[in-house]
Design goal:
Strands 2-1-3-6-7 form a 5-stranded parallel beta sheet, with helices on both faces. A 4-stranded antiparallel beta sheet has the order 8-9-10-11, with no helix packed on it. With 221 residues, the chain is α/β, with parallel strands linked by helices. Helix 6 packs across helix 8. Helix content is 43%, strand content 19%.
C-alpha cells in the first residue's frame, strides 16, 4: 500500500513497484489508508509523513499497535538525522528521504517483503489441535508427534499455507516433485494425500475437490 499525496509521485511509485503477483493499493490521505487497512491483506506500507489530513506518524503508530507484523517504510522530505531517528524509534522498518533512487526504493521494498516472508514461513502454524512447525520440522496432533516424509511435509505446507483455497492436482504435482522428473504418475499424489490424512487424522480437514484437486478446509473463526 502506497500512501503519498503527490499524485504524480504516487503514480510513479505504483508503476515502479508493479510486479507479477503483487497488487498495489494507492492512497493519497490517512482516511483512505485506514479504510483500506480494515479490508486486510496488506503486506507492506510505503508511507509519506506529511499528508493533507494529518501526519503519517499517526498511521505508523496505529499499524505497529494493531498489526506489528506489517513492515512500514517511511518516505519523506524530512531528512534530518533527528527526523530519521524519530521515525525509526516510532517503529518504522526503514526510512527513505526524498529525492530518492527508484532502484534503491525497489530493493528496500523487496528486502522488507523477503524478511516478512521468512518470518512468516518459520512461524509455527496452529490449527485447532494441530501444530505444524516447518522451521524445526515438528508436527503434532494434540500432544503426539507425527513423523512425516519429505514429500508429505511439502504437501502439508502447500495445503495449510493456502487453506481455504483449492490446489489443483497439476499444481501440487509440479511443486512437490521438483527433482527434474519429466513425468510423475498422478497416482503418487493420491497415495501421499491418503497417507497424510491417515497420519494426521485429518479426514475432515483435507478435502477432495472432485475433478480439480485438494483443499485444507478453512474453519470458521
Amino acid at each position: 500500500m502506497i500512501v503519498e499525496d503527490d499524485i504524480g509521485l504516487n503514480q510513479g511509485l505504483c508503476k515502479a513497484l508493479k510486479a507479477e503477483n503483487r497488487q498495489i493499493i494507492s492512497c493519497q490521505d490517512l482516511k483512505t489508508a485506514k479504510e483500506q487497512l480494515l479490508f486486510g491483506g496488506v503486506s507492506l506500507i510505503l508511507l509519506d509523513i506529511n499528508l493533507p489530513d494529518g501526519s503519517g506518524l499517526e498511521l505508523l503508530r496505529e499499524v505497529k499497535e494493531n498489526t506489528p507484523d506489517i513492515p512500514v517504510i517511511l518516505l519523506t522530505a524530512n531528512d534530518t538525522d533527528l527526523d530519521i531517528v524519530d521515525g525509526l524509534e516510532r517503529g518504522a522498518d526503514d526510512y527513505i528521504t526524498k529525492p530518492f533512487s527508484l532502484s534503491v526504493l525497489r530493493a528496500r521494498v523487496n528486502t522488507q517483503l523477503r524478511k516478512k516472508m521468512t518470518i512468516h514461513k518459520n512461524t509455527p502454524i496452529q490449527i485447532d489441535h494441530f501444530s505444524f512447525d516447518f522451521g524445526t520440522m515438528t508436527f503434532c496432533v494434540g500432544e503426539a508427534k507425527v513423523e512425516l516424509s519429505k514429500t508429505e511435509q511439502k504437501l502439508l505446507r502447500l495445503l495449510v499455507e493456502n487453506r481455504g483455497r483449492t490446489m489443483t492436482r497439476g499444481d501440487l504435482v509440479d511443486r512437490i516433485w521438483t527433482d527434474g522428473a519429466e513425468y510423475v504418475d498422478e497416482n503418487a499424489l493420491s497415495v501421499t494425500i491418503k497417507r497424510l490424512r491417515d497420519k494426521l487424522g485429518a479426514q475432515e480437514y483435507i478435502k477432495t475437490v472432485y475433478g480439480i484437486g485438494y483443499s485444507w478446509v478453512k474453519k470458521e473463526e
